């Protein structure tokens, strides 16, 4: 059941996209979280609990945990789809609660299921690649975080850590480009996965500066959440999820009356 409410004072429509836009998306996300906190905080708590379970399961195998936590960021966007539906409802003057999120997850939308499986495969591939790289290259077993810091990150010569970061970036970049617009678009419209992914890549190509900045902002916020013993994720996950909806709206010029997305391009006169 949804209740009609007056739209909030902040709108994400018809704004030029430039390098400052990510900070505006964060402000809009914070507005959405404060306006309707329960669904967002439930998402954040769920992901924090999942992270704590990972820590417990791999507490003495940091060679595995390092890949698991970084792979977690690859899969996390599919778990934020409920947050997109909350922000969409709020933008259209409706209040959506946990019931709306559960309805989306129970809808059995094959597009979201397929996309989630693809993200899961990408995350699993990175976990296995990371674990194999660390165990085969490291001169000593990596069992604790201090082992990773001492024998991988702080070694004086170039090698394992740089390759580990480079491989992770090479995997994360196409996943980010494929999902940053595609996932909210799949929640918002009935377009097929292929069309949503193509739109996502076109958007990233049209706005390279802002999209790189947005990726960096997301990465820094997620790193801060992990450095707070995952407690920070309770707030930062919904903040980024809601902000991602507003990024989608700005980047596709979505109209609140519906999902009217046009393809942005250099001819639109955007500022990079």
From TrEMBL:
InterPro entries: DUF2189. It holds the Pfam family DUF2189. Keywords: Membrane, Transmembrane, Transmembrane helix. The chain crosses the membrane at residues 38-56, 62-86, 115-138, 158-176, 213-237. The keyword Iron does not apply. This is Membrane protein. It comes from Hydrogenophaga palleronii.
